[in-house]
Specification:
mainly alpha
Length: 185
């Protein structure tokens, strides 16, 4: 359950961009929608993996405080997502852009997955399963988000960021409380 919540939270930046693309590019076909969703999902999974392996390199140096680091990273990312939801920003329609620019957008929306990957390396667990779940959930959410954007417009873009931010903060608190109080939550 926690992995699914994490996957949903990490997908919210991509979902917000997908909603914006759907709202601004109403004549998208299923192939273009799938292409966007695949690129976003792939980079969410890839960045999670990269962060995980970076974190493994540093775990021996920070093992005593890893739960504080994980909490800090998730809290800051969650707060940033909530803050970003309040900013007025026009996102361009990335459908007419090159693959290179779509990839740049995917990287920009998956930076949080890199940081979460570092936090996950402190927790252990199967990174392969985590990456696959995050990638697939992001893919599915982005497909739905583009269709939502086509029909409901930009109003939902901000709400997706707030939801993702809140979920990341809750997971951060869970990690912190689990380690401080030696709980099994």
């Amino acid at each position: 359950m926690e992995l699914l919540l994490l996957a949903v939270a990490l997908s919210m930046d991509s979902a917000a961009l997908s909603i914006a693309n759907g709202a601004r590019c109403g004549k998208l076909n299923l192939f273009k929608i799938s292409k966007i969703a695949f690129i976003y999902g792939f980079f969410q999974a890839l960045m999670l993996l990269i962060g995980y392996f970076l974190g493994l390199e540093f775990i021996k140096y920070v093992e005593a405080i890893d739960h504080y680091i994980a909490f800090f990273i998730l809290f800051v990312l969650g707060a940033k997502m909530i803050k970003d939801s309040r900013e007025e920003e026009d996102l361009e329609c990335s459908i007419d852009l090159s693959l290179k620019l779509l990839i740049i957008g995917a990287i920009a929306t998956s930076i949080d997955a890199l940081a979460v990957g570092v936090a996950l390396s402190f927790e252990g667990g199967s990174i392969a399963v985590s990456s696959i779940v995050v990638g697939l959930v992001c893919f599915a959410i982005c497909i739905v988000a583009v269709y939502i954007g086509k029909y409901l417009g930009e109003a939902l873009e901000k709400k997706a960021l707030v939801l993702g931010g809140v979920i990341l903060i809750i997971i951060g608190f869970k990690i912190l409380l689990t380690h401080i109080f030696d709980l099994d939550i």
